[in-house]
Design a protein that fits this description.
70% of the residues lie in helices and 0% in strands. The C terminus is likely disordered. By secondary structure, the protein is an all-alpha fold.
Length: 427
């Protein structure tokens, strides 16, 4: 086995690790609202999402063809140099994913990947190696503009949808309304999971295919190998099935107190936008779209509380995703280049393993899991030194609903019904 082939294998493994982190980092996008309202039990929700991510990864490869295209000029380099850039970019993206997971912040895995690639490219080729703005290409057009528009559009659509739902059902029995919408949430959450697999798994497929081109075993005109599609589908499904409970808690309990009509509105809005972007080959951020939709439901439901401080921290994470993931990618490339060859790649890979282990051990101090993901909201992980899972609800009925969310046909929590009644009266 040659050194370059060994580097290729490390790059492929690292890409699949990124795909895995993408899965558990983004489980919340599909299932946070359904878990919060009791439409699905936590463990069943993440397993369902994992299965649908697996299926979704096979539905389209349009996004795979656009990864890094029009963002960085990787056609100016090839062979071992290109493999080193791709590897460093992946490490930068993984480290940012793990850090934001630890903090319970739903940031974009797509932007983390692009940020890592941009940073590694700048370190290797200089500022000219990045296409900042050029018509339909460039960082501004393909990343910045969609990042700003996606959550705004999602929030607007979800807000209108939520307001209409409460307006139409204001005179109905809210227990019947909530029960019906919980059943609807199962379908809409499943659609978001399918859309996530269709959109996000393809990014890793594109990265692996780029590495194969760099190694010389594939040409840009060749079709995407089946083994790449299968490997990426399995990796993202496995990560999703693990359940990123820390981020699920933030989206489901921290931003807005979700009721079943809100959950259905948020999930339907997100699925429509994500599937549309995948159809046109646009690498949209699933996380920002879903967060915007959840925010919109809070604004559209009369009397709902939106925790703007939590949203502010999310926005800060979004703003720093590209530069900090880029910085990590640049440092990883510089270190690998300084040591040189296979040894440099192995050192950076060892650092990645060590950092991932440290982050995991730190997360065990304030664990969030299926049993406490729906506990009363107190703060983001580590924000007050006590972790995300706050004290149990004072109301015994709320506590029972939290520890064992009911089936969709039964009321999930008494506060859902009370919130819905208040919203109906405010209308």
């Amino acid at each position: 086995m040659t050194a370059e082939l060994f580097v290729l294998l490390i790059v492929v493994v690292t890409a699949l690790v990124f795909d895995f982190t993408n899965g558990f980092h983004d489980t919340a996008n599909a299932m946070a609202t359904s878990i919060a309202t009791g439409a699905l039990r936590p463990r069943a929700a993440v397993l369902l999402s994992g299965g649908l991510n697996l299926i979704g990864a096979f539905l389209s490869v349009e996004v795979a063809a656009t990864v890094a295209e029009g963002i960085v000029r990787l056609d100016e380099v090839g062979g071992a140099d290109l493999l080193a850039i791709v590897f460093a970019g992946l490490v930068g993206g993984i480290l940012w994913n793990l850090l934001t997971w630890l903090l319970g912040l739903p940031s974009s895995s797509s932007h983390a990947l692009f940020g890592g690639l941009i940073g590694a490219t700048i370190a290797a080729l200089g500022w000219s190696g990045v296409i900042w703005s050029a018509g339909q290409k460039g960082v501004l057009t393909k990343i910045i503009v969609p990042a700003v528009l996606a959550p705004v559009v999602a929030a607007l659509v979800a807000s209108i949808g939520t307001w209409l739902v409460y307006r139409i059902t204001r005179s109905s029995d809210q227990r019947v309304v909530n029960r019906s919408f919980r059943w609807g949430q199962i379908g809409s959450a499943s659609l978001v999971s399918l859309a996530h697999g269709t959109n996000d798994a393809q990014k890793t497929m594109g990265i692996i295919f780029l590495a194969l081109i760099a190694y010389g075993s594939k040409q840009p005109s060749d079709p995407l190998p089946l083994w790449v599609i299968v490997a990426c589908a399995v990796a993202i499904a496995a990560g999703t099935s693990l359940g990123g409970w820390r981020i699920i808690r933030t989206l489901g309990k921290g931003l807005v107190d979700i009721t079943p009509p809100q959950g259905l509105a948020a999930e339907s809005t997100s699925a429509a936008i994500i599937l549309t972007s995948a159809h046109f080959g646009l690498p949209l951020s699933t996380t920002q779209t879903v967060t915007g939709a959840i925010l919109g439901t809070g604004m559209g439901r009369p009397g709902a509380e939106v925790r703007w401080s939590v949203l502010g921290r999310m926005v800060v994470a979004w703003v720093f995703t590209l530069p900090l993931a880029g910085l990590a990618g640049a440092i990883c490339w510089a270190l690998a280049h300084l040591i040189g060859g296979l040894a440099g790649v192995l050192v950076v890979f060892a650092i990645l393993i060590a950092m991932a282990g440290l982050i995991y051990l730190r997360s065990r101090r304030t664990p969030v899991h299926a049993a406490n993901v729906n506990e009363q909201w107190t703060s983001l992980p580590g924000a007050d030194g006590t972790g995300t899972a706050g004290s149990a609800p004072a109301d015994p009925e709320d506590a029972a609903a939290t520890s064992a969310p009911p089936e969709p046909g039964k009321p999930a929590r008494t506060d859902d019904s009370r919130a819905s009644h208040r919203a109906a009266r405010n209308l």
